[in-house]
Amino acid sequence: MGLEQFEVVAVLAVLIIVGASYFSSRFGLATPIILVIVGLAVSVIPGMPLIAPEPELILAAVLPPLLYSAAVNMPVMDFRRDLSTIGALSVVLVLVSAFGVGALLWAIFPDLGFAAAVAVGAVVSPPDAVAATAIGKRLGLPPRLLTILEGEGLVNDATALVLLRTAVAATAGAFSFWHAAGDFFYAVVVAIVIGAAVGFIAVRIRSKIDQPVLTTAISFVVPFIAFLPTELAHASGVLAVVAAGLVTGASGVRRLSVADRNAERTNWLTVQLLLENGVFLLMGLQLRTLVTDVSDGGLSVWHAVWVGLAVTVLLGLVRVAFVVPVVFTARRRRPDHEEQARRFDEALERVSRDERFQQHPRGARIERWLQRRRADARFYAGNGLGWRGGAVLAWSGMRGVVTLAAAQSLPTDFPYRTQLVLVAFVVALVTLVGQGGTLPLLIRVLGIRGTDEEQARRELALLLVEVNEAAAGQVLDNPDLRRRGGERFDDSVIEKARMVLSRISDPQARAAAGDPVKQQYPELMQLFLDAQQDALDEARSTGSYDSHTIKRAQKQLDQGSVRLSGA
To answer: Which keywords does this Swiss-Prot/TrEMBL entry list (predicted)?
Structure first.
């Protein structure tokens, strides 16, 4: 393909992605489903060139920024609270699915070794959460369900790719369970260490630069800085990217300026839109190429199709069988969490009355730990996973383009390679269009509703009152409050700040040039904003409020800071 042809294709792809994203809500479908269907239709147009991108382009160039963007926006508090469920779905379920599919393929293809069959099982085992979360957000799924789906999508690719690499290596030699387990443990630990270090260092560097254009440019290379050295160390580069994103999201809100975070959020949303949807369009475009490869190899296309359907059914059954005990365990433990919340309430009430405890050097830290544990217990007690939520989790097993890219990365001398790649495509297509297309209907039939908007507004108001009171106590009620030069604020300025509290209007409109008293107001309000941010960070760390409420409060504080800095 020449340069001009490539430019035309790229422009058309962007226009198709934008159009599909705009009209997806009117059709009631997720954008990825529309793009796959459009890609399928375009691929069979006479004269359309065969599309066969290198699998490394997806695994090494597209997947890292996609996962990083999703991880940065994942509330770490929510991820921590559902880590056990996310780990079960993204690690244990992937392994069980891979070995189950491997056993089926081993029985169907006589010349396929068991290790090779497990490698193919690893290819089709990780669900892609993009379509499920896109549908869930539009239809208002509860935040906890969305967190579990997004968290599963962040980690399961790493599990599958590590297992794929281990299984492919086993096809060339003797297989040792303990050696494979050791490789898996090494890949996970090294990835987390490198990714967390890259995320921490990147945020520190960006906080020193404090220029939105430059810091955003650095953020674009962070996923690759985490991915490349981890892969060179033969660990999971994908998991390193996720770790870097989670660390950046958790520490960036404290260290990066509002302008930096706003610029990064806008730019990354654009990148995510193009890459995320572009890979689904590419997935549809590859149909003709895959069918041609199978036919040219003298193999049966329909045989690959029915094998893909059989694998799809097996994956669905395994997922349902796995989700049922997860939901049952969560429901059974709900009374325990209610009792834990009550005990932590009593413990906090006792320590608040104990003057010796309040004066203890570690008293504040222990009290914060008790608050966090109480918030966790309340969260589990009030956000249980019912059978309706379990049904959505079980039906959200859509596979995506990573499955297809991983299948195409199989060695060229792999037995039945072309047929197995088509099998992977059938699994991805059927689950994405079939399950993804019917997921909205399932959600409506089950009557699942997300957070009540009126309740969310009340919780946001309560949080803002708490933040304002904490800020007022730290700044306005502080007898030692001083300006930057050491002098006191004028009493009229402090009184005016008390009147407006959280509402920050344009200070320039009130500050006449040359009036030293009125010029103090922006400085005082900046101190107040800093104290508000400290109080909000404290609420975020204890987990006392829903992450969505925290995010909305953060947006209001950021808007106030922008208005103040622009004055």
So the answer is: Cell membrane, Ion transport, Membrane, Sodium, Sodium transport, Transmembrane, Transmembrane helix, Transport
Q: What is the pLDDT of residue 175?
A: 62
pLDDT of residue 243: 94
Q: Is 140 strand, coil or helix?
A: coil
Residue ending a domain, choose from 450, 468, 483: 450
Structure tokens at 238: 């994908």
Is pLDDT of 338 > 50? yes
Domain match, 396 and 537 both: no
Nearest to 245 by CA among 405, 96, 67: 67
Angle at which helices 258-285 and 212-232 cross, to 10°? 50
In a domain, 327, yes or no: no
Are 549 and 506 in the same domain?
yes
- CA-closest candidate to residue 443, choices 138, 206, 207, 152: 138
Q: Which of 108-112, 148-152, 292-296, 471-475 has the lowest mean pLDDT?
A: 471-475
Cβ atoms 109, 415 nearer than 8 A: yes
Q: Quote the tokens at residue 430.
A: 């059927």
- Does 254 lie in the same domain as 298? yes
| Mean pLDDT score, 41-54 | 78
CA dist 290 → 52, 329, 425, 442, 455 (Å): 9, 43, 8, 32, 51
Reading the block at residue 82, the tokens are 């559902």
In our burial notation (b when 16+ CB lie closer than 10 A, e otherwise), range 99-118 reads bbbbebbbebbeebbbbbbb
What residues have CB less than 8 Å from 274, skipping those under 6 apart? 14, 17
Task: Using pLDDT thresholds of 50, 70 and 90, give the confidence band for residue 299.
Answer: low
What is the predicted pLDDT for the residue at 179?
Answer: 77
